[in-house]
Amino acid sequence: MARISYLAVLSEDPASLAGFYARYFGFTELGRTADGDVTLSDGGFNLTLFRHRPGLGEPRMEPGLHHLGIAVDNIDDTVARYLAHYPRGTVIKESGELSRGEVRIHDPECNPVSLSARNFGIAPGPPRVPRIAHIALNALDPEMVEEFYIDVFGFPELWAAHAARRAEPGYRNRHVGDGYTNVAIQAFYNDTEGHEGRMGIAHMGVIVPDSKAFAASIEGPATITERPASRTQSEVRMRDPEGNGCDLSQRGWEVEIGKWARAAE
Questions:
Q1: Can you give the pLDDT at residue 17?
Q2: Which residues lie closer than 8 Å to 13 by C-beta, 6 or more apart?
């Protein structure tokens, strides 16, 4: 099954930001490039911090969380499935270096999705804590973006954590998972308490043993706020030294039908 295992960030100071995640989250540095990019890992994700520069040539160049990547068994089959559903979809070759996938496709709202047949250079191993287990992205049409992840990658739709809210008039948020990571696809125009209006990837989420204790240990280098009670899968919102949002959760996230990723597992 396809697995989400890559997250790209455009950073003003990758070395400093990498030091923050290495020191406080225990993420391991895997490599650096001559351009100043730094790749980290939590044991399951390749987290690459690209130095923000014009030469990246991204369609969207604002600093911060940028795009995700998915490890697949066969890139050609995945691209064929993508083009069968999106005949005018854009397919771009990537370098295949540690900091990138081998091919890039795009969701219906033009967010890049990198593909890798080599798991983005991450060796298999037991899950670690802290670890990334959630990505939230904002979309104008959440249902259409959800269909992309279902049709191209076979991710199941997830509702257990949001069953009560599904009946609310106007509720459009959608959730999919790969068995390891939960992806929340949120309506950009959204007055829900705690919503952050940032197009594309809005925040990530990390499982920790004790969210409040962990938050206390990093307050200062990071800024900390409690999540609203209506947010059922995380307790704390952290902003790292560059302002990137990261939810801290000891409750964990629903990642597959009948399966949750939690610190104790």
A1: 98
A2: 242
* Cα–Cα distance, 211 to 218 (Å, whole number): 11
Cα separation, 221 vs 242, in Å, equals 10
* The pLDDT value given to residue 231: 67
- pLDDT value at residue 160: 77
**Measuring CA to CA, which residue among 72, 204, 207, 67 is closest to residue 145?**
67
* pTM, two decimal places: 0.95
- Which residues have a Cβ under 8 Å from the Cβ of 98 and sit 6 or more positions away? 30, 31, 39, 46, 48, 120, 121
> CATH code for 3-121?
3.10.180.10
Segments in the chain below pLDDT 70:
229-232, 265
pLDDT given at position 265: 62
d(CA 27, CA 14) in angstroms, rounded, equals 14
Q: Domain 131-261: give its CATH architecture.
A: Roll (3.10)
> How much is the CA Rg of the chain, to the nearest whole Å?
17
What is the phi/psi pair of residue 22, to 5°?
-70, -45
- CA of 110: how far to CAs of 60, 88, 104, 117, in Å? 10, 12, 11, 22
Domain limits, the chain: 3-121, 131-261
CB 44 within 8 A of CB 127: yes
Give every CB contact of residue 115 below 8 A, 6+ residues apart in sequence: 69, 70, 71, 72, 75, 78, 79, 101, 102, 103, 104, 105
